């Protein structure tokens, strides 16, 4: 007799710079992984676009590579596929299902006028009550309004609007579907019903027929078609679950499925992600409220646009000497810079940095905000400037946590992800500024890993997301406690930090 069949799951992530696929078994062991890059288009300043066909080509490549690597696993069978990817983007299709124009991405800034129109049409307060968020340039709804006002010929052809990962589902299965967590980032979803808001759609004159059906993240909503199988080497009829937006999928993959632990990601941008059992939109609009990938649950999220991006900018512009040293020693440049910062006392000799190099979301929601060092003197050098960056980013993350806790969601510990989490110096600063125990998330596979957990639930291997996390996610057993002396230093400095942006807003 042959060996028992091992159930495996593929998670596919349609990111901003690449498609990634990972295959895991029912115990969470990674069996294969692959990635393929694609181009980012910037046809005008502030515009960001991509060709959905590039996503599809990369998808076919990574799935082929993963399935090729699995060929030696003779007892492995793909039981289900989970999808995740960049949120908020808009893929416009005509009645034939063909792409009308390049997709407009989450970080595109062309829609400020459309945002004003949406808040006027729906009402600022009412919009936040229904959708949980203000109208922001990155969301999908303003992109639809922009298309109407600026490309009427394309708008006249419009029959379907999809999010990035959902376009890949369409190509795999010929099915139009989405999930509640990703749909919550369109500004068209009613958070309470977890379905499209008839009130918002009516106010914006957007037909319901343009939008896909909404499912909970682990629900099977499609299966691989004959065409999808031919293009990818997947087996026809393989189930596909609804999946999740990238932040929600990353949270599931990191075990952030209750209110005890929040996820703090220090990548190019910074994110503070906290599970909530109820929808608690922030009336001020300073904090995002979205559906979670856990059915019936929600999450609060604060976003700092240039966290690791601030250190990367400094490294590129001002650290050529350190870059040479890092290359010779074979070490990470950003880690080397953080080690230099450690030679300076906490507080950087009273130097502050505002990490608003790309504007800012939480809490200021101000695209015109700018970065700044404040308090420079003749005694400061490069090390002080680096330390001020590390501390300024931590303060900006504290802004998000403060507002999450004001909504009644008070996590007891923090899981840190992204490149910044792997610097012991930066990690200690974040723990002290946010005054919570921290541990580092094993985020090598990123959101794609979370998508595999959702697929495992959809395939019936686990009863729910919590059971899948318990079986497939290896959670840290120890969290680093914040240093009491650092906490004492940073508490008054954070209070000063909160006064700096208001004092400079008019100048920005």
TrEMBL record:
Residues 9-253 form the Carbohydrate kinase FGGY N-terminal domain. Keywords: ATP-binding, Carbohydrate metabolism, Kinase, Nucleotide-binding, Transferase, Xylose metabolism. PROSITE patterns: FGGY_KINASES_2. Its EC number is 2.7.1.17. GO terms for biological process: D-xylose metabolic process; xylulose catabolic process. It catalyses: D-xylulose + ATP = D-xylulose 5-phosphate + ADP + H(+). The record marks 13 as: Important for activity. Pfam families: FGGY_C (PF02782), FGGY_N (PF00370). The keyword ATP-binding applies. Catalyzes the phosphorylation of D-xylulose to D-xylulose 5-phosphate. This is Xylulose kinase. It comes from Salinisphaera japonica YTM-1.
